Amino acid sequence: MRLYEYEGKGIFKKFGIPIPQGTLVRTGEEARQAAIEIGKEVVVKSQILTGGRGKAGGIRVAKLPEDAGKIAQGILGMELEGYKVNSLLIEEKLNITNELYMGITVDGENGAPVAMVSTEGGVEIEEVVKRNPEKIASELINPLCGIRTYEAINLVRQIGLTERTLTSASRVLCQLYQVFALNDACVAEINPLIITNEGNMVAADSRCEIDDNSLFKYPEYKDLRIQRIENRWEREGAEGGVNYVDLEGNIAVMANGAGLTMSLLDTIKANGGSPACFLDTGGGLSRERMKNGVGLLLRKARADQRIKVVLLMVRMMISPPDAVTEGIMEAIEEVQVKTPVVAVMRGRTPYQKRARELLENSAVILCPGIEEGIREAMKIAKG
Ligand code: GDP
Ligand code: MN
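Above: the input record for the complex with guanosine-5'-diphosphate. Below: its predicted structure, written as tokens.
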């Protein structure tokens, strides 16, 4: 999960990395107040979950508090790089003499963290990799001992820093490694790390990503992860406890179990059909999860003209047929859309029988097996 700049800087501060004086604001008036408090020229920075804000007009300098207020009002609510700007960071403007890059990420090939430094700060590191790879110095870090002071010094020396800047940059690199390791990050990056006129080192930007697999350790982020999923259908899926991935076809597909869903998608594809999504409800179905899954597909079908049919493949080994069918019926009743629903109910024989009985007089088109179900759905999808 990617963090906002201000959240990353909050972590930096805890770990001793110098950050500019700043305040998070949500209105023009708050921006003006914040600028008064800072008492000098400020930078107005949009808080969105992407880089390249500088180029996109999301970062502006304000001489007076009134300017900060006006600029803030102009940017708030704007759409930048596909993200709506809801908050801004008002920060003291720094007097820059040099912009460095410093980052730690996971090197998958070597299975270890890698620390990178460069004198080409302020530019996206991917660009530097392409154009001036010789300007980046990098070093694998042994995750069992962490970064050693001498490793940090050696690395920073390679990009030509000396004396005071060498000492302070290597200190920041060690602190950044702590940020990375102790927050289960997969990326911890400072770009640019600024050297001011006074010779101080300040993190002007932050980019931190927490490994999703570690989010269970961070209750404060865990709830935010779902909120921050961009695709509204994928977000709705996560909220409803099902695994949903948007695709582009005309058959909205659902099954219980990732393997079953994958093979259903493959079989549809192999027969020349085109799935509109991947939806795995997971095993051990409850009425609610079933309803969430089917409801999601029907709402998506209502919003997306491409979708012609919904295909459900349910295998009931431990999932009770009454809960499964109730979930389906409640979703159909709630969403009210004309899209036909084809269902294949399999699993333990008494469960199959019961589920078919319960759906017998409904609008659901029952098919005996997966092949018949796919054939029926494709027939409807073709019109
Ligand atoms: P990004 O473009 O989204 O990565 O946003 P950054 O926070 O990295 O800002 C982009 C650029 O704006 C930086 O490379 C700096 O050149 C400039 N910038 C950011 N903060 C300050 C600041 O406090 N003072 C000055 N003068 N420039 C800044
Ligand atoms: Mn940046």
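Notes for the reader.
The chain has a mean pLDDT of 96.
The chain is about 40% helix and 25% strand.
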